[in-house]
Amino acid sequence: MLNQENWYVRTINSANDYMFIIEDLSDSKPLGACGLLYTNWINRSADFSFYIGHQNLYIDNGGLAEDAARTLIQYGFNNLNLNKIWMELYEFDTRKIDFFLDKFGFHKDGMLRENCFEDGRYYNSYIISLLRKEYI
C-alpha cells in the first residue's frame, strides 16, 4: 500500500504523467484507469497505460474500452500535441494486442525478448505505437 501511495503522490505532482479514472457515465462508478505516462516533451511521445478492472471486463465487447481508449488517444494528440503514443504489451496479452492493432491502427515497433517473467516462464514483450499522422 505504501508503494501505491508513493506512486500516486509522484504521479499527481508530475508534469509528465496524466492519469484518469474510467467511469460509468450513468452512475459515475469507477471501472478502471488510463493514462499517458513518461511524457517526453522533446520527442512529443508518451506511454499509454490502460486498465479496466470492473467485473474483469479488461477489454469489453460493449464499447467501453474502445470509447475510453479513443478519448485518451484524442486527448494525447489534440490536447497534449503528442506525435507518438506507445505502449509495451506482453505476448500472452493477445486480446489487448489485437485490440490496439485492429481498432486503432497501432504498429509493432519491436520485440523485447524474454522481457517478462510470469507463472514460471519468460515471455517476450512488444512495443507498439501510433503516430499522429496515422491516427488523423
UniProtKB/TrEMBL annotation:
MF (Gene Ontology): acyltransferase activity, transferring groups other than amino-acyl groups
Ranges where the N-acetyltransferase domain occurs: 7-95
Pfam families (UniProt xref): Acetyltransf_3
Family annotation (InterPro entries): Acyl_CoA_acyltransferase, GNAT_dom
Protein known as: N-acetyltransferase domain-containing protein
